[in-house]
Amino acid sequence: MGAGYTAYGGNEKPRILPVRPNPVEAGTGAAIWQAMKRALVIGASGGIGAAVQEELVSRGYAVSGLSRSGDGLDVTDADAVARIMGGLDGPFEVIFVAIGTLAAGGGPEKSLQAIAPAQMAQVMAVNAIGPALVLAHVERLLPRQGRSVVGVLSARVGSIGDNRMGGWYSYRASKAAVNQIVHGAAIEIGRKRKEAIVAALHPGTVDTAFTADYPGHDKVSAAQAATNLCDVMERLERSQSGGFFDYAGREIPW
């Protein structure tokens, strides 16, 4: 993504991917549509978001996707988020928020002296404030009864307990912030959506434009990362809501 980021909305209604219905579902047309579970992917144009969208379709979900490039939603614009999220009709059993930028206008800082206030503020706006603005509209989009999952893309580098290398100040701080936001949102949303699960998810190092400038790390394809993330979302239990998990479902320290 370079200096850009993955985000979403402009047209009031999201684009809906063609659906491959589960063959065990009886009926056609509206009957199949009503029987299918629905999913919403925020950040559907990014490498991980697009892959998660395709993975959910393959699992029989009717998937709606929003992206900044495709729909015009700027997650740093509260009015745009309110307008577009407010135009959605639920319920969605799965909501995946894949918003993120590594560095706005430059690379991750290797030292405190490299911190640029404007760049740090932009990274925080996209990685932490953006998801918070989206999450503010999520509760009404979830079913009142039955299990639902909200997965928010985070990163292991947002873990304070796991930070042994230093550096990357803006990105680390923004991911630590979104983890706190996710934890708080899980508590708040859970008061009215008793079976909802809200979690921060680390996808591993994924081979996308986001990581292209950082060779030397073991990477997985976006498709494999999407499979892993969807597996985790399927396995999470209500008691784990508010947690921080990696691509294998292992809890990550705060």
- How many domains in all? 1
CATH class: Alpha Beta
Which regions contain 5 or more consecutive residues with pLDDT less than 50? 1-12, 18-34
CATH architecture: 3-Layer(aba) Sandwich
Rg value: 17 Å
Biggest sheet architecture: 7 strands, mixed
Order of strands, widest sheet: 1-3-2-4-5-6-7
Could you explain the architecture of this structure?
Helix content is 34%, strand content 12%. The protein is α/β, with parallel strands linked by helices and 254 residues long. β5, α6 (169-190) and β6 form a beta-alpha-beta unit. The two termini are 26 Å apart. It holds the Pfam family adh_short_C2. GO terms for molecular function: oxidoreductase activity, acting on the CH-OH group of donors, NAD or NADP as acceptor.
